Amino acid sequence: MAPEIAIIGGGPCGLTLARLLECKGLDYVVYERDESENSTRTGGSLDIHPETGQRALQEGGLFEAFQNYARYDDTVLTLADKSGKRILQMGQGRDAPEIDRRELRQILLDAIPKDKIRWGHTLKAATLGEDSRPVLNFANGVVESGYKLVVGTDGAWSKVRSLVSQSTPKYTGRSYLESRISRENPYYPTMADKAGAGMFMTVGSRKLIVTQRQGDGSYRTYFGLEVPENFFKDGGIDIQNLETARSTLLSTFFADWSDEYKDLIRHSTDPRAWPLYSLSAEGLEWKSAPGVTLAGDAAHLAIPNGDGVNLAMTDALDLATKIAEYGIGSVDQAVREYEADMFPRGAETIRDGQMMAKIMFSEDPQPFVDLMTSFEAGAE
Length: 380
Ligand SMILES: Cc1cc2nc3c(=O)[nH]c(=O)nc-3n(C[C@H](O)[C@H](O)[C@H](O)COP(=O)(O)OP(=O)(O)OC[C@H]3O[C@@H](n4cnc5c(N)ncnc54)[C@H](O)[C@@H]3O)c2cc1C
Fold this sequence. Notes:
This protein is of the alpha/beta class. It has eleven helices and 17 strands. The chain has helices spanning 12-23, 50-59, 63-67, 101-110, 188-195, 242-253, 259-267, 297-300, 308-326, 331-360, 366-379; strands spanning 5-8, 28-31, 45-47, 77-80, 86-90, 98-100, 117-118, 123-128, 134-138, 143-145, 149-152, 170-181, 199-204, 207-213, 219-226, 269-278, 292-294. A hairpin with a 2-residue loop joins strand 13 (199-204) and strand 14 (207-213). It comes from Cercophora newfieldiana. Residues 5-168, 291-346 form the FAD-binding domain.
């Protein structure tokens, strides 16, 4: 017999949901496309907020494990202009500690029985069976059905989404080019001196450079560019060729930025493209369908605004709480109530992402300084 709940995608949302269902004694299985928990795909550092991500970890009994990794000294944000002048520093002591995505995933995986996760299961398509309930077709040929609930937590390009919604992510006109400065990099001591702890961000000429210290002390940098959707695929910056990629960044995008940034580009390694996509806040809602829902980025993909993972974990917490409250026999009612709460916050984060992107890709850093200062004043 199939488990009662199928979770598609073992990212922060899916694994948090799995952990919370485990705590509540509910029956579930997670399908994840990665081949194993040792997959080498990693991601950046995430700040976990008290009322959302931290609360979900607390409910899952994982706050102590989280504290073993939480970096409270990396909450600081330093803002500069393209001449290298430091304009603002804030965020010291903020209750939003950083954790690497890989570490967060490990904490969650360690708290879920191994046989509850089916690795190497890439969902190819979700269809509706004769009973109007979801049928899961995996790329490895496995076909599964018979769940009381299927939850799509499979991120931006969710294959579950089409069961409830016609929405698809649209390109936002902006992309990040990610790169690394490892501890072995000859530029590392200079980088550590100039960027320090937390996030070092520079805004100007409708571009940005965001550098973030990671758990191992290395740095991850995102160069934010306004470029066409397929710019990297079409070779606008050839990320397969490090020297060419560096020289295009230097000559075409950051030619009039100070030497500090040019040195960073000259030493950056491991380029990776992140075209930024978003769902639309308008029409985000769908008519609740029996036996299926979405959570996290699958439900409300936004331009990264520092809240994505926190909202994904909040969705997981709310959904698990509702399912436990109503019981698996009334799971569709639980889903309806979860969705009614989730839709407005999903639409809000999409709008926030759009607003933040507009301000971060400004001609000069002042609008971003004003926004950050207003956040800080609001937090007092
Ligand atoms: C460049 C960048 C920087 C970001 N920085 C931040 C930040 O600083 N703070 C923050 O809060 N958020 C940040 N975000 C957003 C954040 O990463 C997401 O909001 C968050 O990861 C959403 O979690 P999720 O579990 O819903 O989806 P995901 O993290 O996308 O996880 C989806 C999971 O599903 C699996 N999967 C996908 N497709 C399938 C399939 N077909 N079949 C089976 N499994 C599948 C994937 O392998 C993955 O494990 C950033 C995003 C980007 C792109």
